Amino acid sequence: MKIDNQHYPFEKDAINCAEKKDSNLLYLPGFTERTVGEGKYCLVIVQNRIIYQGSGPCRIPPAGAVVILKNEISSSGKVDFSVDFEDLPVEKSDIQWMIGGFNLLVKDGINYYESRERAVKALREEGWDSAQSEQTQETQLDPEIRQRTMRTLIF
Question: Exposure check for the chain: N or C terminus, fewer CB within 10 A?
Fold first, then answer.
């Protein structure tokens, strides 16, 4: 992430994780808690704009993010996100757009929808029944109905 041309990287273990001392952290709507950053310096970001910067706790917006920084910054409010993907079949620069489906149907050969109980567990594990997810889903996921997952890469 860049904030006013200053780069702030977030590794996997700093995204939607238990809060840590002395780390920059990123919280997205899939996180299980509604608020984060108690007593820490937070930025609330919606549509690449900082809508709040100051002391937490901060509510994670349903269509945005909360960033917890180790140090307080002064910002004009402009944010640029960039994502690095692992194991893509092509170079990231060759992708014009990409679509991901909703929920995971199979992982490591395990059918996540073999029973209602397993389907409900899968939706919970993926964060689909969180308060933030419920606010942003146009169509609620239903474990009784097998939904189609689509992944498309366009070069």
Answer: C
Whether the Cβ atoms of residue 30 and residue 16 lie closer than 8 Å to each other = yes
How far is the C-alpha of 122 from the C-alpha of 87, rounded, in Å? Answer: 23
For residues 29 and 132, the answer to whether their CB atoms sit within 8 Å is yes
Predicted pLDDT of residue 88: 74
Tens digits of residue pLDDT in 32-84: 888 999 999 999 998 888 999 999 999 998 888 999 998 898 887 788 877 67
Which amino acid is residue 58, in one-letter code?
Answer: C
Q: Distance of CA 142 to CAs 12, 90, 113, 146, Å?
A: 29, 33, 11, 8
87 forms beta bridges with: none
Looking at this protein, which amino acid is placed at residue 63? Answer: A
DSSP letters spanning 60-81: PPTTEEEEEESS-----SBEE-
Residue 53: strand, helix, or coil: strand
Round to whole Å and give the CA distance between 46 and 152.
26
Average pLDDT over residues 97-114: 65
